[in-house]
Amino acid sequence: MVPDIFVEVVEVFKDRFTAKEICECFEIPRSTYYRWKRSVNQKIPEFHQLVINICKQLSHRVGHRKVREILWKDHQIKKNRKTVQKVMQKYEIQCRVKVKRQKYIAGESKIIVSNLLKQDFKAEKPNQKWVTDITYLPYGPKMLYLSTIMDLYNNEVIAYKISDSQHVDFVLETLREACNGRETHEVKLHSDQGAQYTSYAFQALAKENGITTSMSRKGNCFDNAVIESFHSSLKSEEFAAQFRATLTTTIVIEKVVNYMYYYNYIRPFSKLNCHSPVEYRTVAA
After folding, report:
1. CA-to-CA distance for 227 and 155, rounded, in angstroms?
2. CA spacing 20 to 30 A to 249: which of 17, 47, 136, 273?
3. CATH 3.40.50.300 is right for the domain spanning 129-284
4. DSSP label at 245?
5. Pairing outcome for strands 188-191 and 212-215
6. Which residues in the chain land under pLDDT 50?
7. Is 143 exposed, middle or buried (0-12, 13-18, 19+ CB in 10 A)?
8. CA 65, CA 156: separation in Å to the nearest integer?
9. pLDDT score of 158
10. What's the pLDDT score for residue 1?
């Protein structure tokens, strides 16, 4: 939520609702609202406004070091990088830092298996080849993570989970959902070498369900290109117009749920003779 817009919303509806009720509706702490209100009412120093304008022009995609360089190059203003950083922190206009995936999980064994898929993304029947991955959802007030499992037969998303943690239980729940009601003893399940997939718990659950696991070569995203492409499409098609933390956590989750339904039941694919994944599976059955 953009601070000045939220403050304006509260002002517009303050005769009908209390600030507390509006904050609860948007899942924004009251302390945050009053801090935003104080900052909006304060006169912004000229230098601060210049930093804000630079960040806004660059869609908040650059850090304080780059802003410092622009200040010198375009405005001949020389400032210490820490000064610029403090201004950006004050107005919450820092660039979004890409969160690195965990490289290990405390107490878990690390099991790496061979790449059995070898970029052969064609499947002759359902439940023959599955692919899975985790992606980030940086669109709300806190970072969320999406775990997805897709059947390569018709590119149908057969299971997904959303969480605010990347703990191994996150992918275990996704795998259990995918296995529920399906024959899995011929499945090859391909993933990257993320800590969740190399964990003993994940490998044991796959083996328990008769699934043979496969993993991408380290640092090679093309080995899992289909699921990577899907996650990219979800972000570009469902969240392209969104910017920074402009949505509540509830709305982010709703948008993912709606997209999953659209993708599985409505969106036509050329490779499926213009059928949706579920429609193609139904027709072919």
Report:
1. 9
2. 17
3. no
4. S
5. parallel
6. 106-107, 244-245
7. middle
8. 43
9. 98
10. 56
